[in-house]
Amino acid sequence: MKKIVLILLVVVSFSTTTYGQSKWHEKQNNYFVEQAGKEFGLKNDQKKELKEKRMEMIMSFVNSNKALKNGELTKEQQKEKRREASKKFNSYFSQLVGKPYAEVEPFLKRMRDEIKNLK
């Protein structure tokens, strides 16, 4: 009986943590998409696609963090995976808004700072 309770406690704790992180990532993603929509005049279909592409990047970051913790990647491999995901997203974002990366970079930097301070 004690084992069952312990297992249930572990499962519930894990589920709550995972769900909480997902909600946080979703909140960050929604904020980014909303701000990008305002800044660059994106249409609803563009915002929907942007939301999906940015979530792909976020999940790539999350997965590389998990792989590092599990010993599946070295710190350098993790950095490379994150760089690739960022580069892919930044290229996509530049194409979406029709501006070169140099012009969207200030927006991306501002968003990183603002998203860190979201509550």
What's the short story on this structure?
By secondary structure, this protein is mainly α.
Rg result: 18 Å
E-strand count: 0
The backbone outline, from C-alpha atoms, is globular
How far is the first residue's CA from the last residue's CA?
40 Å
Break the fold down into its secondary structure elements and pairings.
Layout: H1 2-40, H2 44-69, H3 75-97, H4 101-116
Helix pairs in contact: 1-2, 2-3
Signal peptide: 1-20
Protein name: DUF4890 domain-containing protein
Organism: Flavivirga rizhaonensis
Outline the structure in words:
By secondary structure, the chain is mainly alpha-helical. The protein has one domain (2-116). Helices cover 87% and strands 0% of the residues. The chain has helices spanning 2-40, 44-69, 75-97, 101-116. It is globular.
Any descriptors?
119 residues; mainly alpha; globular; DUF4890 domain-containing protein
